[in-house]
Amino acid sequence: MAEPFQKDAPRQEVLSAAAEAEWARLRQQLELASGFWLGFLFTTSPAAVHVFEHRIELLLKVRARRMQAFKPRTPEELGSVLTVLLEKGPSDSGCVWVQAVFADPPGTPPAPGPWTLAWDDFLLRLNERREFLRRHFRGGLVLAAHPSVKPRARDAAPDLWSVRAIVVEPPATAAPEIRSTAEPDQETSRAAATPETFPDPEMALAEARRRASRMPENPGSVASALFRAVEGFLAQGATERAVEAAREAVQILRDAPVGGSPDLAEALVWLSKAEAAHGDPAAAADHLERALELSAGREDKAVSEWLDLAGNLARDRGDFGAATEYYTRALDLDRRLLERHGETREAVRYLSVSLENVGSVRLSAGDLAGAGAAYEESLTLRRHLLGRYGETPQALRDISVGLERLGDLRRQSGDIAGATSAFEESLALRRGLLDRYDETPQALRDLSISLNKVGGVRRQSGDVAGATAAFEESLTLARRRLDRHGETPEALRDLSVSLGNVGDVRRQSGDVAGATAAFEEALALHRRLLDHYGETFQALRDLSISLERVGDVRSQSGDVAGATAAFEESLALRRRLLDRYGETPQAFRDLSIGLSNVGDMRRQSDDVTGATAAYEESLALSRRLLDRYGETPEALRNLSVNLDRIGHIRRRFGDTSGATAAYDEALAVDRHRLERYGETPEALRDLAISLSKVADARRKSGDAAGAVAAEEERKNLRQRLHERYGEPLET
Fold this sequence. Notes:
With 731 residues, the protein is mainly α. The protein has helices at 17-32, 46-61, 75-88, 114-128, 130-136, 150-156, 158-162, 201-214, 219-236, 239-254, 261-277, 281-294, 301-316, 320-341, 345-364, 368-389, 393-412, 416-436, 441-460, 464-485, 489-508, 512-533, 537-556, 560-581, 585-604, 608-629, 633-652, 656-677, 681-700, 704-725; strands at residues 37-42, 67-70, 95-100, 140-145, 166-168. It is elongated, with a radius of gyration of 30 Å. The termini are far apart.
């Protein structure tokens, strides 16, 4: 049966610092509010509930008002409370308190338990009678429930939820915790596992107008309703209206006669979110920085979230130095909060997200060891949360994301087996989430991304059929998400990524027409994203990659002019990215590849001078990449490919010794890569190609024995590729 509160539990007045902060928020609401307002209290702590109830009662007494309390102890009694409230109406109360903080017993899922069903019905009927509440309640209505009710409240009573005045969540004190297997709190913006039920923005605006007319002396209350309007408009994609509502909130708080810095900081954050969505990242970054300046010296989870948002904006504009600074500040703050207040599920999760963000920017900067340390610690924390607090959609999704990040790192480090293991485990978790819980855009997207990751390592390992199956399934999911849940920039980009992957394996399998169709569709999507949603670092880079793929298939089809146009446009975008967003390993590598592609087209058009200039610049960039950021399999391969091209162009000019030197260096690089990072089909194939070039160069220079040795080794490698990976003996 459900776990009730102790009937005679003492009204312990000692709360933790975090719970006291939540009480201070509720007290302010009680003191400042006039007319009807709605509040939610979610906790697993009986002691905290008793303290809050007792303090509300005392606070109202000194103002000659009273609290009307209802404490149903069964699901049926909760329904009876609703009847009293809606049919008889409340007495002349300063606050109506409904307390039913019960968890359904373990073993109840997958079917909703009795308390879940009772709360669903209570909230649904309350939502239907919201106008009655507005007209007849003269004070607050506070619903005290178990945290598992929170996502149900957003679903069952979306209109009431959108105009809630306050949500307080005091953490558990030393009193026994009520344990539950129900869904966890999903509200945090840090990689939530299930979608938010968003406020009705029009209703929130109406509430803001009502508060402005009735409580002009309380600008914070008006602003809080405007914040919910912003949230609702953003969910609808109405970014211009979101900006307008956020600016109104900022103006109201700036004009407030006294104080207001914490509220103003929050308003600036909402304005930043709206401006970023509306395509003005510079204004978004400026307003977020001002919010952080107003919050100087403040240390709480809100500031940590704002630092993450600032890091995201910096990363999106390609400023990895600033992103690293913001993410590191958030990480340091999360560690301090955990040490200061002790372990809670939310605190540990926030720390894991900050570690993941720090790992991502370290990886972007080429710091593989630093990224690995951050990712490993983050994943360890997430597995700890799963073991300690039980299985929830959010906990499972967080682990899947952590495994994906670790897989990316391992793949970039050349550990294909380790990357495959991480990606496959992540994929299994995401299939389980989609099968066990309702289909959502996020669940579809997560599974689609996992399939792309698995497809990538399968392709790299020579399993073209397995890669094709994964990529095609990912593409199907991306189209399904777009069809069922509507068009967003993210959904369009995800579709374009899946199309690119499908095009790659079709091309590898010899289906040039199928590859061309996929690449051209992806290119059209990238141009559309750039036109409709404005320039960002990611949008420009995506377009450059899409142009590169289109150039490849045009070249393969013999369309030299079309391929040249695509490659030249891609190269121009990459120069622009490097100039605008600064030097990163990715920027160097992208530009180097772009130059090689343009060099190939110039060579085919007999522009040997132009080809040589492009190849020489590309080689210089690949050497600079290795010198500045260290070895990775990708960086070594880039150097080897560039050396091969230089060798070819030198030989064409008659510089036999120069060509031989370039081919020999490329061969040494390929051997080193294979020895250091292990065998993959790509590594064996590249080494075989280098041996073929070296054999040819030795033959032309009169070194017959050296040529025979290189050719024999090449044949052995081709035999190995055939036996292990099913490749034909000659390609």
